[in-house]
Amino acid sequence: MTPQRIGIVGGSFNPIHIAHLIIADRFIEQCALDTCIFVPAYQSPFKVGVRGHRDPTAQQRFDMVKAATSLNARFDVSSTEIDRGGVSFTIDTVREYHSANPSAELYVLIGSDQAIEFVGWKDWQDICRMAQLCIVRRPFLLTHEMEVRTTERLTVDGRSPKWINAPLLEISSTEIRDRVAAGQSVNYLTVKAVRDYISEHGLYSANNEAP
Question: I want to staple 114 with a disulfide (CB 3.0 to 4.6 A). Which of 7, 48, 110, 205 is the partner?
Fold first, then answer.
């Protein structure tokens, strides 16, 4: 039997947007994945102490990812990092999936900006040993020479990272939060189910004083 190919995409998803979904779709396509699992972080190690008073709870971020991915049969969402609590480290999630699916082939997707700092991630070499590291290509962020150096630096035990091609979409979660706070439209920046959820729960609004 062919081993299952499982993709893992982590992040704060605050909120999830169209670019996340398109990149995940290309990830599936170019790595021939059986499934792509979105794993919302409980607390990103790079964003400790920066949660704003208008930000959603971890459960609300999870709910938005669930709503955004529900129509794609190959998308799934895991609450493993939220359930674990504390600071979320990718290596802990990879180890958990490796233990639960010892015969599966794991693929972990990161962005080019994350690749630059990847050697600073907790047990980064073990991530590369247990899963195929994949990097979303951003030509305007990394030159070809920088990609080559990044590939060399992140090659572990003879396995090099795989570069994923995806459309260049200048969409960010920060932009969505700022536009909602300013009372501006976020049409087309994220899916309708997420826009509705944000509206119904008053997320990111200047009037939202939730702790």
Answer: 110
